[in-house]
Give the backbone structure.
Amino acid sequence: MRRKTRSCCSPSCRPPAGRRGSLSLLLAGLLLLSGCGGKEEGLRIGTALYTKDDTFISTVAQNLEGMVREAESETGRQITLFLSDSESRQSTQMDQVDRFLNRGCDVLCINLVDRTAAAVIVDKAEAEGVPLIFFNRQPVAEDIQRWDGVYYVGADARESGELQGGLVLDAWRADRETLDRNGDGVLQYVMLEGEPGHQDSLLRTEYAVKAVTDGGVEVEKLASETANWNRAQAAARTAQWLEEFGDGIEVIFANNDDMALGAIDALADTPRDRWPLIVGVDATAPALEAVAVGQLYGTVLNDSRGQARAMMDLALALWNGEDPARAVELTDGHYVWLPYRPVTLENLEEFLEA
Ligand code: BGC
Ligand code: CA
């Protein structure tokens, strides 16, 4: 792998023993000129968010910012995090990547707008020898494997679907009388899907339902539509469905918590005796509050903290020239997978404390 050459004070940058004597004077001069240990010598991380207006993504970014400050005080070295908002435009993100590279960033963390745009970014990063960590929006395997300096930090979308479906299956088994409102032995549901083409929308939608049917429960899909991860869009969709199906909806699956909260907004607007059972994914702070008050039956932790931790540890290891596999648990040399965890009222305390 071609890596960017940089003047550096870290022991890992020392030349081989035989060349040390001849280079020492030159290096001493360079270090004086560059002010080694000063700002220029610190780690620069360029991070692009597909949009800062996404609750889950902004939580990852906040965690990352906190960890940068922590790592700075622990290592005593300057770490600069350049955070940019791609405002849901891939062309904007491309400009931001160029700017990060021009500024001499040592590592890039990219939350793609368009998952199919990864190859161009990989080529730009490889040309500069700057390692690249994609997160949350997963490029196809061929793009990840294009260069060995490319990593992906995320969570297995299929697992989140299975866990979400598992929550519904458990609820059905524990209290079928209540859940099967019309008593026909079939679970009538609606599905609020995330952005089309996103791995988490496709796989959560498929595997949440599969977990229920694999558990031997017959289901009937009343409606399934995208609300683009968005609370207001989900509220509008749910309001339409409530008009159309009324109390016929027994379960509302939402591919993320913001959309589950949108469904709750719509239900709160039209007073009714009983609410359908609602499940989300992410375990964001407002979703945990909704679980606490019984509006949201359950969610699945999408570990924003763990994902930020993995990015930070990878970035530090790559910068220090260390083997990344010693800093994080790497699968196939490129992937860091964080586990999902189901959350209901029963284990809520653990997550509130965290
Ligand atoms: C999260 C969503 C978020 C999306 C953004 C998903 O993993 O569950 O809440 O909107 O990523 O890419
Ligand atoms: Ca039913």
The first strand starts at residue 43 and ends at 49. The mean pLDDT is 90.
